[in-house]
Amino acid sequence: MATAPDLTADSRSALLVVDMQVGMAAGSEQEGMRLAQRIAEHVRRVGAHHGLVAASLFRNVPGCTYDRLVASDMRGDDECALLEPIAALGLECHELPTYSSLGEELAARLRASGTERVHVVGMDTDQCVLATVFALFDAGFEPIVARDLCISTAGDVPHEAGIVALHRAIGEPRVIDAARIEEATLGAGAVSGAGPGAAARGG
After folding, report:
1. Is 192 inside any structural domain?
2. Residue 176 belongs to what domain range?
3. CA neighbor of 201 nearest in space, from 161, 145, 158, 151
4. Sheet holding 92-96, edge to edge
5. Rounded CA gap, 34 and 202, in Å?
6. Model confidence over 160-181: pLDDT tens digits?
7. Per the structure, how many domains does the chain have?
8. What is the value of pTM for the model shown?
9. In a domain, 48, yes or no
């Protein structure tokens, strides 16, 4: 029987910031920076409550599947660098050449820290976020997506398609606004009117 999700940030949860990189935001720099700022605000509010907070970085390694089938971008350090608001957080980082951010090293870290639930934010909703959620689910973790802290740099239609896919994959109760996580963790009074996604896409 399906159970209602526990949205609280606590010692059994982790927060994963997916691919908030300079090159990923190319062509949507303002939107990417706004998202980075909102994610950084969310991390400052609840990050200390999680057992682990980490960021993933995509790097297009020569010969990897992305390199062979899609494009040759996202190789240099400048492209692969985290956007400044995320870089300033000093998070543990995990670099991979795959759509999914869940590699063996991160999976081992999550298990070693006793993680049961992984809160996911970042971009793109319809690509790396979605692939990461699938990988987490298949690895036995419970993914929870803060939908207003995710975007697709290709626009609203791919973002909404990603949200629909997430609803089908992990259930609508696990695809929620960041304010719900903050309220569950800090209490309603602590976050009233302060939700970082108030003007974000994803509604």
Report:
1. no
2. 13-187
3. 151
4. 92-96, 52-58, 13-18, 117-123, 142-151, 175-176
5. 14
6. 999 999 999 999 999 999 999 9
7. 1
8. 0.92
9. yes
